[in-house]
Design goal:
It contains five helices and eight strands, in the order αββαββαβαββαβ. It is α/β, with parallel strands linked by helices and 194 residues long.
Amino acid sequence: MRRIVLFLTVTTLALSPAVSLAQSKTVDAGRGAKVDEPSNPAEGGAGQTMKDSWLTTKTKMALVTDKRVKARRVAVETQGGVVTLRGKVATAAERIAAEEIAKDINGVKSVSNALQIVPEVQRKLVDARDDGIKKAVTERLERDGRLRDADIKVRSDNSVVTLMGTVPDVKIKTYAADLTRGVPGVRAVRNELR
């Protein structure tokens, strides 16, 4: 009897996101389908986090189902209803399509499109260079004594470095960006530290 209850519980938990999605109302929107939100969570705290997670999931699913975008190359993050797209795409048309898809998701307040255009023939070279830049920036930030209390994540897309995470104050935020700009190969810095 316990095995049956356990099986039903696990099955229910595994299927609940799919069932919720299947029960969501869809609306034909010309360029694509909009998926309504399952509920209206509170504007702050855990409710906003849940809403942001739901928006991220809906955006990723919409990107996967749209043939104009290679979704595996696009990272999606949501904070406060603002969707941020990061990664590398092959063409300007693919970059524009990804932004349009994200904007069409019901509940998205705005879209920050940080996608970099990298043609397929340059992809391997750029990926290798980005890996080296990310490693060099991470090492430089970790070695610096002023940044010991900082929680900084580094991402490099076509030599554009994004700094994410939290730091103690605005001076440290600026200092981290200045250190990053000094790393060879860094073309630009997006400072998203809080």
